[in-house]
Amino acid sequence: MTLGGLLSGPPAVVAAGVDVFSDALRAQGAEVHDVDWRPPGFGSAEDIADVALDPRRASANRAAVERILAAGSQLVDVRPAAEVIGLRDRMLLHSGPPLTWETASGPMRGALIGACLFEGWATDVEDAERILANGEITLDPCHHHRTVGPMAGVTSPSMWMWCLKDPVHGGSDKNMAFCNLNEGLGKVLRMGAFNEEVLTRLAWMRDVLGPVLQSAVRSRSDDPIDVKAILAQMLQMGDEGHNRNRAGSLMALRELSPSIVAVDAPSSDIAAVLKFIGGNEHFYLNLGMPTAKLAMDAARDVPGSSMVTVMSRNGTEFGIQTAGTGDRWFTGPANTPVGLFLGDYGPDDANPDIGDSAIMETYGVGGFSMAAAPAIVRFVGGTVPDALATTERMYQLTLAENPAMAIPIMGFRGSPTGIDVLKVARTGWLPQINTGMAGRIAGTGQVGAGLVQPPQECFEKALAALAEESRTA
Amino acid sequence: MLRSGVYADSVKLMQVSRDIGARDGVTAVLVAMATPLNLELATTMGLAPDGDASPEQLLIAIRADDAEVLAAAEAAVDAALAARERSTGTAAAVPLRTIGAGLDDLPPDTAALAIVSVPGSYAVAEAADAIAAGRSVLVFSDGVPVEHEVALKLAARAAGVLVMGPDCGTAIVSGVALGFANVVRPGPVGLVAASGTGAQQISSLLDMAGVGVSHVLGVGGRDLSEAVGGLATLDALAALDADTATERVLLVSKPPAPSVAAAVSAAGDKLSVPVRSAVLSPETPDLTAAVEALLTDMGLDVPTWPSRPGPAEAALPGAVLKGLYSGGTLADETMLLAAPALGDIRSNTPLKPELDLGTDLFASGHVVIDFGDDALTVGRAHPMIDPTLRLEAIAAVAAGEEPAVLLLDVVLGYGADPDPAAALEPALTAAREAAEFPLPVVIALIGTEGDPQGWSRQADALSAAGAAVFASNSAATRYALDLLGASS
Question: What is the pLDDT of residues B399-410, one digit of tens each?
């Protein structure tokens, strides 16, 4: 139809700018919808125009989003990091953008120390600090290895990892993503704790949990667990997949337990494994994160796309990547979350934002699907309408709605998916992230949970880079 | 203390702990389910409960300065646990910030159009939203770089939609008037307009002749420039050709780039619908004549265009023409019509570069000023809305030493001043009284009886202020030339 049917009848009008047009239209009885336009929150007019006019952008963003929506996630194996990603001796992965021992925050240092002790690379804390400080340990971001890790994300060679496969993308060499196993809450390595309790648990996870899960997962290799389907169900059950994983953890346990029980291991070990999983409300998080990672990796490297593929924090800096700029990091100082605290911990005890888990928001769940889990907004004293408003706002930052991730209270609207750097700049609204809070001092562990936003600087840098790239394309 | 039979989720309990901890005299609080983790926390806080705890129990541990505070805090815990969150279950209104969000919010398959009138440097992103959503867009904003205009129009062509503008103030789509447009009857004539006031002149005259318009598709004043190459004009012509309501097309523009004019003319010849040009040029300087030719094409009589005669006072010998216009195309038309009789006419939008006034709006000699030009609307509303600058110029002519004839346009319709005569009348009366010479005033009153301001009502008021009033700008211009004794 010519001009999309524009001339076939009186059109509805959507107007941005001065009122005089809308007033005249209303005087005629025409259907007018005013948008509450504001100047962009950041970014030069020239950069915004150049990105908006990049002729590749519309189709590139469509392609990137289609890949996200199409990506699947199957649990295919559980293996030690040394085998899975070739993590070599004296090398540790961490969350967020690249970092050094000097720039590492308390909980990151705590987790790195703990990992050195766990691997037997250091005899005590001072020894671990020494080898980390003098560069004997190679540090690299999880994201550089198709891996994600919650909070500190510290992954060492003998830690076991979930191995997830996207059955859709990657041709014969299917896309894979990896994540370590969740330790539970409280004093845990990922929150920067490294005491005996932490190391004992890590050793048990290495010696008992990992092997049992491997056997269990491999026993159903002809019918791998559809991890994405669990995430979709979670949104129907009060979870948002980042700060609430209760239903998801129970569903994962339900899926795994028949195979776990059938593993040839002492029944005391089987019982301990089932108890451990059943007692951990965040067990699913480490399955959800690589599921999101698979989808976001499928959308990597789409020239001209202004969509965010990574949001991640290392406790010092927040970093993002976009589909149009490959593996370049755009970083800024991480904000400190606002929320509720355990026991008598308070805001002064909280470390700045940390963890790869913002991959959940990058994928459109977590804070973006806040409406599915209104319990979360109470971390900041919010109400159910606040949760709905948060998700409504995120729709204006994103490129698509993910029909697989339906949010019941939004009329089963799909989750807001595919953050557009351009939309973030134009609205001036930053992505909403739900998160745990680690103690600022190494060794503390978790101090609370709450809400946080990325620093605007990441998006400013990404916008400038996308504009520059569009000018040279 | 431990309590059984009470459950609240951890978020709620953390909230309660925080609120109770903030009370005066309370030094430590832990309200939590008595899980091993929480019991350990309580122990580190020195608040371990007496007796065996089970995870189903609620642990309420409070340390306070005295028993009274403690009792009050305990009561507050009970109250907080019992409190119900006030909730309507509906989202607080989230404002829609962009054209993209606004279009996205419409029910699917709604025929819709976007209007963008945000500052020019930000208009591109909003217009691009509309194109990406497969909708046409009218961009009123000016100050959009020409390379952005070209990029938008190429994107629109690829998406099968139309960009009207930038700097497009006038359109009518299926009877809906967008921006500055007149109330005209529906009918068979489609207009493609690179000129807003040109389109208003033509559609108003057609209405006065009893002929209606199907659509007026604005394309922006630069569309027929070399740089833009008529991208939107060609798309609009094709759209009107396919439109069942449109039987004839009239193309309206200021003088275009010759190569583009040729290309558009060739494209027009290939359409099934007859296309007539009302493109201004030294050879075709008269929009009214174009309307009359179209009426003749349609086998209709040309009416006598409405007017109100003035007091018939003659200007002094040697008087000059002072054309003070709000419509750029009307100013162009006046210059094209008057130049053969008057010779050089200086202007801020001159026919020839050497006649450029620059910023001197009070130059001597024959002058025609377009107060709607971008340079004069920076930081202020269009003269159709804000007459201040033009009223100052009228006073300046009266105070000057040159005998003159004042020639003005007054444009009616949606978007325009609701009663332009009300502001002009005292200004004209004062000017005519102040001037030390006869100051004849001639007004081209562009509009229809159906306009909110009403053509006759405005004409009568302006006539009462001593002006001669014409519905046709070319008729007004010729009358002014007569007064100057310089008929062309």
Answer: 998 999 999 999
Q: Classify residue B40 by burial, with Cβ atoms within 10 Å: 0-12, 13-18, 19+.
A: middle
How far A138 CA sits from the closest chain B CA (Å)?
34
CATH number at residue A459: 3.90.1700.10
Using CB atoms, pick whichever of B101, B154, B242 lies closest to residue A35.
Answer: B101
Let me know whether A19 and A92 are in one domain.
no
Mutation site for B-interface testing, chosen from A2, A35, A424 by largest number of B Cβ within 10 Å: A35
Q: Do residue A205 and residue A94 come from a single domain?
A: yes
Render pLDDT for A414-454 as a digit per residue (tens, 0 to 9).
999 999 999 999 999 999 999 999 999 999 999 999 999 99
Q: Domains of chain B by range and CATH?
A: 2-82 (3.30.70), 107-297 (3.40.50.261), 307-483 (3.40.50.261)
Residue A76, helix vs strand vs coil: strand
Cβ pair B221, B328 in contact under 8 A: yes
- Give me the mean pLDDT over the B168-181 stretch: 93
| CB contact (8 A) between residue A12 and residue B112 | yes
Q: Are residues A269 and A364 in the same domain?
A: no
Size of interface A-B (CB pairs under 8 A): 245
Claim to verify: residue A192 and residue A321 sit in the same structural domain: no
A204: pLDDT strictly greater than 80: yes
> How do strand A147-148 and strand A176-180 relate by DSSP bridges?
parallel
Residue range A92-107, pLDDT digits in tens: 999 999 999 999 999 9
Domain assignment present for A385: yes
pLDDT value for A3: 82
Q: What is the distance between the alpha carbons of residues B236 and A6, in angstroms, rounded to a whole number?
A: 11
Question: Would you call B118 and A16 a contact, using CB atoms and an 8 Å cutoff?
Answer: yes
> Does a structural domain hold residue A43?
no
User: Which residues are A160's β-sheet partners?
Assistant: A80
Given a cut of 90, whether residue A324 has pLDDT beyond it is yes
CATH of the domain at A211: 3.90.1710.10
Provide, as residue numbers in chain B, all residues whose Cβ is less than 8 Å from the Cβ of A45.
121-122
Please tell me whether residues A315 and A198 are part of one structural domain: no
Examine the domain organization and report whether A26 and A151 are in the same domain: no
Q: Which residues of A fall within a CB distance of 8 Å from B189? A: none
**How many separate domains does chain A show?**
3
Subunit contact A52:B124, Cβ cutoff 8 A: yes
- Check if the beta carbon of residue A10 is closer than 8 Å to that of residue A32: no
The per-residue pLDDT for B90 is: 59
8 Å CB contact between A435 and A360: no
Does A123 share its domain with A268?
yes
Vertex A128 angle, CA A124 and A131, to 5°: 140
A435: in domain: yes
pLDDT at residue B105 tops 60: yes
Helix, strand, coil percent content, chain A, rounded in steps of 5: 45, 20, 35
Considering only CB atoms, A55 lies closest to which of B122, B155, B177, namely B155
State how far residue B290 is from chain A, nearest Cα, in angstroms: 25
Residues A33 and A163 in one domain: no
pLDDT of B108 above 90: no
What is residue A464's predicted lDDT score, i.e. its pLDDT?
98
Nearest to A11 among B15, B40, B173 (CB): B173
For A154-186, the pLDDT digits (tens) are 999 999 999 999 999 987 777 999 999 999 988
Q: Fill in the amino acid letter for B231.
A: L
Flag whether A339 is in a domain.
yes
Under an 8 A CB cutoff, do B101 and A20 touch?
no
Which of chain A's residues have a Cβ under 8 Å away from the Cβ of B59?
Answer: none
- In single-letter form, the type of residue at position B431 comes to A
Range of the domain at A385: 57-68+300-472
Contact A55 B37 (CB under 8 A): no
What one-letter code names the amino acid at A395?
Y
Residues with Cβ < 8 Å from B461, sequence gap 6 or more?
Answer: B421, B422, B425
